[in-house]
Design goal:
With about 130 residues, the chain is mainly α. The chain has helices spanning about 5-10, 20-40, 55-65, 70-95, 105-110, 115-134.
Length: about 130
Amino acid sequence: MDNRQMNMLKAAIPYTMPRYRKPMQILIQAQELASYIREDDEADIGACDLESAGDIEGMMESMRGFCSKKEQDTVDMILNLLRTQRFYRAYRQFMASGRNNSESAMLEFMMSQLAPEQQASFEQMSSILNEGKG
């Protein structure tokens, strides 16, 4: 069954008798699965290798919304470990670069580790605090 026929079946589902809808949906899903298997016969399980995996933090953040409170706590712990590990690697690179000889360089490094919205909040807070000094 080609894509045009699949799309026609999908478009027809809302107009069919209720007792035929589920079998049609199953047929469509089976065809989609068969098509996926035929097209992606070279698929491997690369996600099992964390070094070659994609955005693990993004995946964990996306999954977090579907977790129970206890599971969210576990996901948060894992996210904190991942972020700490990334921060430590960046810190080691910074120290090895030799640009760490001034307070402003350290502040620049710390700012580079913040998300853009965190950087904006920090800069806004700094400007408010600096206005009070002047």
